[in-house]
Write a structure and sequence with these properties.
six-stranded mixed β-sheet; 488 residues; globular; Aminopeptidase; five-stranded antiparallel β-sheet; alpha+beta; Alpha-Beta Plaits; binds zinc ion
């Protein structure tokens, strides 16, 4: 391009006045300058070499899997050091934080890629810890970062070191490619999400200053649904259920099992549990659930489509109600749920124990007050000898608006890839660190950068042979990169 202008310019000058010649030359010089500016900015914004970058990302993920952060005990300081070394090399300032508060070999990690500050920041948050493994049930070493058969294998590939590395490498790709940033990109690695959630709690408590300019946050809790290889929807997580685990205890008088007594706590506990097990919580359609089921209704036919398009009306029809609640996911987003999961009585057949207890996993819709719900259960159990104990501090409710620049950026990046697939907002039935950040007013979405077959997602996450397709690494990296570009 530069060569063409230089050759043509002298020919023009001979036939024109001096003034014209001067003007033309100035124009030509301007063109040359403009060309240089354009080349320079093109160079500064060179699109990443996606093949090379996907390869690099795959190897970085494999190495991250090798940092064993099984929680307990966590050892997330090792993970924080691993990530900081990569960030240091890229010239992105990173800090290892909260080591004193979090205890031995634990830490949070914080980094920030600076933009021009004209808009508020976007934070990418993942937890660095993983749940324990039962190696006997794995076909590979869960902490070797094995890459074979088109997958990277290991604990954390799905939950959630895979996403963490997407966060890291998308941020690095933005820096390397020189995309102008109106928003800073904040990168956070938290410890202890899988056990107590202390990492995020301590981070928010100690470092509200680092988060004060953050408008948006993305972490786990999104669910893109893939069934039999077909992508049904892109799911952005805007709400989640509240966890209200309970332990219930009946005390009695210990004695020999050969002489039954009325002070045996076991039958009393069992009777109360039976009443709780038979209790059907009412169906309750939240606006976001109504919208989600309406969004997916075109994927169904006949009366099922009609029912999904207006679930509030459908739940009054017995057949529709049964069909809806037979789906264990829909059932869980349409009501408060109770799973009785643990029982303890005597450890000897011939001993009446001093105490019998049970635990239950209670998950509440975001508009339910936990104490009101527990009071209802106490009435259902109908026995003052049953004592109720909160197993965890309830987190605050999680609900987010969808009329935001980030939601639109996710929609655009999703539709770039699959123009005919809807982007919707399935409620998350389990718990994440999101409520801890949402409390600060930050719009906090669950964003899933991968397309993983539903069955594989549920068997691998917290299960055995957790793995992520190599193709998903390239997909997730570019998908998140585009979201971050579009939200600028
Ligand atoms: Zn997780």
């Amino acid at each position: 391009m530069r060569k063409v202008i230089a050759q043509r310019a002298p020919g023009w000058f001979h036939t024109r006045t001096l003034h014209q010649a001067w003007y033309m030359r100035r124009t030509a010089v301007s063109f040359v300058l403009l060309f240089f500016v354009m080349t320079a900015s093109a160079r500064a914004q060179a699109a990443p070499d996606w093949n090379a970058l996907s390869d690099e990302t795959l190897h970085t993920l494999s190495d991250y899997i090798k940092v064993n952060t099984t929680d307990p005990p966590g050892n997330e300081l090792d993970a924080a050091r691993f990530l900081k070394a990569i960030l240091d090399k890229e010239g992105i300032e990173a800090q290892i934080l909260d080591t004193a508060e979090l205890g031995h070999n634990r830490a949070n990690l914080y980094a920030r890629l600076k933009g021009n500050g004209s808009k508020k920041a976007v934070a990418l948050v993942h937890h660095m810890d993983v749940v324990p493994v039962a190696p006997a049930f794995w076909s590979v070493d869960p902490f070797a970062g094995v890459v074979k058969d088109g997958y990277v294998w290991g604990r954390g590939t799905l939950d959630m070191k895979g996403q963490g590395i997407m966060h890291l490498m998308a941020m690095i790709a933005l820096k390397r490619s020189g995309v102008p940033l109106n928003r800073d990109i904040v990168f956070i690695g938290n410890s202890d999400e899988e056990f107590g959630g202390d990492g995020a709690v301590v981070f928010v408590k100690n470092h509200a200053d680092l988060l004060k300019d953050v408008e948006f946050l993305m972490t786990e809790g999104g669910e893109n649904l893939v069934v039999n290889g077909k992508l049904e929807y892109y799911g952005v997580g805007v709400s989640e259920k509240q966890t209200a685990w309970q332990r219930i205890v009946v005390t009695g008088v210990p004695s020999h099992g050969s002489r039954p007594t009325k002070q045996n706590p076991v039958p009393r506990l069992v009777a109360a549990l039976d009443r709780i097990a038979k209790y059907e919580t009412p169906l309750h359609v939240l606006p976001d659930v109504q919208k989600f089921l309406h969004d997916i209704s075109p994927q169904y036919k006949g009366e099922q489509r009609v029912w999904l398009s207006d679930v509030r009306s459908a739940i009054r029809i017995p057949r529709a109600r049964k069909w809806l609640t037979d789906n264990i996911y829909w059932n869980a987003i349409l009501r408060n749920t109770i799973s009785l999961t643990g029982l303890q009585g005597s450890n000897k057949t011939n001993v009446i124990p001093a105490e019998a207890s049970a635990v239950m996993d209670i998950r509440l819709l975001w508009d339910t007050d936990p104490q009101t719900f527990i009071n209802t259960l106490k009435r259902i159990a109908n026995d003052t000898a049953v004592h109720w104990v909160n197993q965890i501090e309830p987190k605050s409710k999680l609900q987010n608006p969808i009329d935001t620049d980030l939601f639109r950026a996710i929609e655009k990046a999703s539709h770039d890839r699959n123009p005919n697939v809807i982007v919707t907002t399935p409620m998350f039935t389990a718990a994440t660190d999101r409520p801890t950040y949402r409390k600060l007013g930050i719009v906090t979405y669950g964003f899933d950068p991968f397309l993983v077959e539903n069955e594989e997602m549920h068997s691998g996450m917290h299960g055995n042979n957790e793995r992520l397709a190599v193709s998903n690494v390239g997909f997730g990296l570019k998908y998140l990169y585009d979201v971050l570009r579009y939200v600028q």
